[in-house]
């Protein structure tokens, strides 16, 4: 196969992942047809994650009516997908190491597709919840395997962008889900909304069957001949020998795969705390409460018709999330991680304070009864747009980038799986308690609580998260050693 083109990565030398040990395929920015297939796998894995995050928002109302669900069961149907993802992420780390990145993405695609069919055909609530758990397991496994796969197969100068493409696909998946929700809402076609996720699932299976195995993983499995075949496929016309030698020497330095004891040991405690802390703050600052319950928030803010709610959710949350992710892609390697995180958290905190204040006003003015769109409703809409934009250029992509760059190679698979699982556990807790929290402390205090977590997150990022922009992975490891973590 011939090369189909080249992509120029700006600030390529600054990219965190550009400096990964030279254990990766040949440098350069050449996109071969096989790399397009790899990119499709990464994008589809992100899109599954996003579609599933977004689709429930529009499907909830009809599901609630179809099965007469209590508030608690609405929360269970919404959030148990994250519980499945938590276990999927932990299993995904093991699968990716044992069966390889390609096969774990393939398994994730099969599990996800099966789960979405179970959801769509469910006769009742219990099977629906089981379907949500299965879908979640697929999403979680893909969420660990796909970025690892991206990191190992992308040309070094484009690696940062390959990983960022994953977050962009998550945001894109949420947006498409909102569009599908809007399209199907009037027919109460929630089975179709959920069942349609089988389409990207099947596409992922198709691409994952085609895609090459990671030469790096094959070398780890001592399958040099297979690694050479895959390397020649991905980078036709280049000599695979030197690339494989570099992988071999980098693997030798890693002293094999770390035990769980080492992952949690004193030596790597600081990066683990940074990774896990970022994973927690990404969720407890409220993003998924807003993604999942957007329609209900806009309803409470005075968007009384279903069409108005869906439009607000689709564009103000879904569209803005996609567009603002490009800001991160453009600036992450120029401004650095800390600046984006700190600026984003300020914007998120302020906008949540405004949302809380607007709800305070709405509650007083209407004694809790929904009213037609009012000034307070518009203020809520604008503030939520600012919140989403600030998340999308900071806590969304930057958190995943930092999590994927702070660990040394030999603990990376397991440590990333731990951080990802903690992220899902936090998402689970937030989505599980959000509606109940609103009932107990009210809308305003719930948003102010998220705002206070943004403030705490800001302080924590300021003191705990080092700048990793422009440093090689070896230099990042030295940060931990010099601080005697
Ligand atoms: C988060 C998800 C969130 C998504 C929104 C991701 O980085 O991990 O929980 O739903 O961003 O775009």
Report what the structure shows.
It is a single chain. The chain has 19 helices and two strands. 78% of the residues lie in helices and 1% in strands. By secondary structure, the chain is mostly helical. The protein has a two-stranded antiparallel sheet. It binds beta-D-glucopyranose (BGC).
Throw out a few tags for this protein:
single chain; 485 residues; mainly alpha; two-stranded antiparallel sheet; 19 helices; 2 strands; 1% strand; disordered N terminus; binds beta-D-glucopyranose
The span between the termini is: 48 Å
State the helix count. 19
**Spatial sequence of strands, sheet with the most strands:** 1-2
Low-confidence stretches: 1-26
Order of helices and strands: EEHHHHHHHHHHHHHHHHHHH
Q: Using DSSP, what is the number of strands? A: 2
Q: Which radius of gyration do the C-alpha atoms yield?
A: 22 Å
The set of bound ligands, ions and cofactors reads: beta-D-glucopyranose
Shape: globular
Helix content: over 70%
| Largest β-sheet summary | 2 strands, antiparallel
């Amino acid at each position: 196969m011939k090369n189909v083109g080249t992509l120029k990565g700006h600030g390529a030398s600054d990219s965190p992942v550009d400096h990964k040990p030279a254990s990766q395929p040949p440098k350069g920015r050449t996109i071969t047809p096989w790399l397009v297939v790899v990119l499709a796998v990464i994008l589809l894995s992100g899109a599954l994650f996003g579609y599933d995050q977004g689709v429930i928002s529009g499907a909830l109302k009809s599901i609630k009516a179809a099965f007469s669900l209590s508030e608690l069961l609405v929360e269970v149907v919404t959030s148990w997908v994250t519980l499945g993802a938590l276990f999927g992420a932990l299993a995904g780390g093991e699968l990716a190491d044992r069966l390889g990145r390609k096969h774990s993405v393939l398994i994730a695609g099969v599990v996800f597709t099966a789960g979405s069919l179970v959801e769509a055909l469910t006769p009742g609530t219990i099977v629906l919840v089981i379907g949500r758990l299965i879908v979640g397991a697929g999403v979680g496994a893909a969420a660990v395997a796909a970025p690892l796969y991206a990191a190992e197969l992308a040309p070094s100068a484009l690696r940062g962008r390959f990983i960022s493409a994953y977050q962009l696909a998550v945001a894109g998946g949420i947006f498409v889900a909102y569009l599908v929700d809007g399209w199907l809402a009037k027919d109460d076609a929630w089975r179709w909304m959920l069942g349609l996720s089988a389409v990207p699932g099947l596409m992922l299976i198709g691409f994952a069957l085609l895609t090459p195995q990671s030469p790096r993983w094959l070398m780890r499995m001592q399958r040099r001949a297979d690694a050479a075949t895959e390397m020649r496929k991905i980078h036709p016309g280049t000599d695979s020998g030197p690339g494989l030698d570099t992988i071999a020497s980098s693997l030798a330095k890693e002293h094999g795969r770390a035990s769980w004891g080492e992952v949690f040991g004193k030596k790597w405690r600081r990066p683990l705390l940074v990774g896990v802390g970022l994973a927690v703050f990404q969720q407890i600052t409220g993003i998924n409460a807003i993604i999942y319950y957007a329609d209900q928030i806009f309803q409470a803010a005075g968007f009384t018709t279903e069409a108005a709610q869906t439009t607000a959710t689709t564009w103000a949350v879904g569209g803005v999330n996609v567009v603002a992710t490009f800001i991160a892609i453009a600036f992450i390697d120029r401004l650095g991680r800390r600046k984006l995180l700190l600026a984003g958290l300020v914007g998120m905190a302020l906008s949540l304070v405004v949302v809380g204040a607007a709800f305070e006003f709405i509650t007083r003015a209407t004694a809790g009864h929904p009213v037609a769109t009012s000034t307070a409703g518009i203020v809520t809409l604008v503030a939520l747009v600012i919140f989403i934009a600030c998340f999308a250029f900071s806590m969304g992509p930057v958190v995943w980038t930092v999590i994927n760059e702070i660990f040394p190679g030999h603990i990376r698979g397991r440590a990333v799986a731990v951080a990802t699982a903690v992220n899902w556990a936090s998402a689970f807790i937030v989505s599980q308690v959000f509606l109940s929290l609103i009932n107990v402390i009210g809308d305003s205090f719930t948003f102010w609580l998220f705002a206070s977590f943004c403030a705490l997150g800001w302080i924590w990022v300021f003191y705990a998260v080092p700048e990793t922009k422009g440093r090689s992975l070896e230099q990042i490891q030295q940060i931990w050693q010099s601080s005697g973590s």
